[in-house]
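Posting for a labmate who doesn't have an account.
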Amino acid sequence: MGVIKVENIRIYANHGCLTEETKIGSDYRVDLVIKANLQTSAVSDNLVDTVDYVFLNRIVREEMKKPSYLLETVAKRILVRILNENNAIKKATLSVSKLNPPIGGDVEMVTIKMTEKRKK
């Protein structure tokens, strides 16, 4: 097993329960950690034998474009899609952070973190 991390993906999106949040939008940070067998690609030096991080970034960006009330919903969509579209991934952990959330105080970010494992 090995780990691939795609960290600090910066995205502007329109998530939130408040009308203003969905109209104006906010800055988000997404961090993704996947576990997969990287032994074959370590020997073959071939992209088809690993999990392409360009693929991971693309899915995160596409799913973040779809407005949702909750970050949990967005995270679940991303995780399910990643596992469905790449059989090499055994486990994925995703953190979605809303930067400078409108919660009535000086808060840098709020983060939700979820993990999905491939069903055996």
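Reply:
Got it, the structure tokens are right above this. Helices lie at 19-24, 39-44, 53-64, 71-85.
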